[in-house]
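PROTEIN ENTRY
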Amino acid sequence: MPWWLVVVIIAYALNAVAAVVDKVLLSKSIGNPAVYAFYIAFLSMLGWVLAPFGVRVPTASEFALNMGAGIVFTFALLFLFKGLKKGESSRITPFVGALSPVFVWLFSYFLLPERLGVQEISALVFLVVGSLVLVKRVDNLRASGGGGFCAACVSAVLFGLSYTLTKYNFNHQPFVSAFVWMRLGAFLGGVLLLLNARNRKDILHPSHSATKNTGWFFFGQAAGACSFVLVNYAISLANVSLVNALQGVQYVFLLVMVWFLSWIHPRLMHERMHGKALAQKIIAIGIIGAGFALLL
């Protein structure tokens, strides 16, 4: 198994943990998704602890691209959290994950020298289709949480652009240097959220329900941060379209975690895990598994 593939599996397992915590906090504690996006952007500055290991001063064009990748990433998170607040995490997250590789592929075609072979394209198709199967409702053609899916569409486009810019930066700059400067861009994206009056009020004066879950927030962000570093490392090693499409592996971990939480604590996490919905998700896992096998 390629080393980058091992890194991706570990990364997406950690990201599944972060996604579950995100959903619980957004539903129960944090009313405004911008608050969540801001704190993640703020914490992204912790990436500067890597600065002594290889940061350098970028050129003007490199700096602009680093800032752009980071800012776009923060707004991709904002729209993802808006979607999660309105819809089921086991459907919104795969929906974003299914669409973003398509946009990564489109953006990469024009910005990167990467081209996929027949087997890799087949794997990409399986991974995307498997993710989409998780989204489509079998027992109700009118999907609930329509607003959540609209936000998820915007998130997918922004993630696609951010990941493509990230790969471009890694192709032209040392890994540590590009990664650290892009964290500054993510932080600036968080600062831009303060321009909105409601966001500024909610961020600077959080509610009691938001502050009392600080421990869970930092736990989720620790898992997400480790995942993010590993995903970026994998992007620097392999084709960005494939790394992004392998989010399907994350959904397998996510489904197991959500099923377990729904079983032991249904009021905390409610997801449909029976009948047609369960069969649909099992089929999706099989399709994702086929795509994964093509990469081995």
Summary: The CA atoms of residues 79 and 155 lie 5 Å apart. The radius of gyration is 18 Å.
